[in-house]
Amino acid sequence: LDLDHYYHSYGEIMSYLNYVQQNANGNVNQFVLGHSFEGRTIPALKISLPSRNLKKAIIIDGGIHAREWISPATVIWMLDKLVFNPFNEPEVTTILNHFDFYIIPVLNPDGYEFSRTNDRLWRKNRRINKDNGAENCIGVDLNRNFDYQWDPKNGGSNNPCSILYSGTHPNSEPETVALANFTHSLKGVDNGGPVLAYLTFHSYGQYWLYPWGYTTDYPVDQPELHHLGEITANAIWSVHGSRFTVGSSTNVLYAAAGGSDDYAKGSAGVKYSYTPELRDTGKYGFVLPENEILPACQETWAGVKAFAMALANV
Ligand code: 0X9
Ligand code: ZN
Predict the structure, then answer these.
(1) Which sequence ranges form a coiled-coil region, renumbered to this chain (predicted)?
(2) Residues lining ligand 1, CB < 6 A?
(3) Is 0.90 surpassed by the pTM of this model?
(4) Is 173 a catalytic residue?
């Protein structure tokens, strides 16, 4: 699979994940996170080097929003580098000695496929909104559906026809439940839980966002979140000169309640929760051309490496 130059179908991604599992010397375990509304498998991979001490975990997901194709593309590209280390980067070994990774490349496979075959700018999942008598309006915005400060009137919508539809209630969507239950299941009792970081990749705008997304208030540890965000943004900049803005979602973008980032931090106890918004800043927007996949992946990978290295020294 050419990860550098092409966006791939859900089917191609599934077979690539099988390939990774089979060629990773036992350090990769594939599992089913859950199933989508239309019944597709939501795949997940755990990358874990054998070790006697319990490692903290980093969860990475992509493809919550269907049309943001650079997100799954980048997550898969980074997965490949973490597992096979094709450039022999010493940081990869260091990072894997400190952390287990849980990678979910396509959380919304139904929406992703629909955006490939029917409507390039589809954003939501593919729920048939029968409960609200709106059978003609399809889909819930998964990033408004998480069960922390859920509020359709705060950056979401009660209208099933809206692109920002929050759902009838929090966790109404199988994709939301799959991610939320998994993240919550890793929550520990001591020092904030074994999941140290959560990165949910979106596009576009070139931001490295941290909570909260539901209020202009900052979390108490905002200075730490900001500091690590700046380390990441500097590393990104050093590759191709792309500028990423670091800040809290509500303050640098807009208020939007029910996001997975707020859920991870607010409910599942994940300290370092971020929503990176990848390339670009609006020239192509969601329809980022394939010749920008490689540079986008390269810079994002530099950011994630710097982020994980900094976390390993915390
Ligand atoms: O609106 C969103 O869900 C994200 N932007 S996007 O253009 N990819 O749709 C930003 C989400 C930031 N986090 C929260 N508001 N919780
Ligand atoms: Zn998005």
Answers:
(1) none
(2) 65, 68, 143, 202, 209, 213, 249, 253, 256, 259, 261-262, 275, 277
(3) yes
(4) no
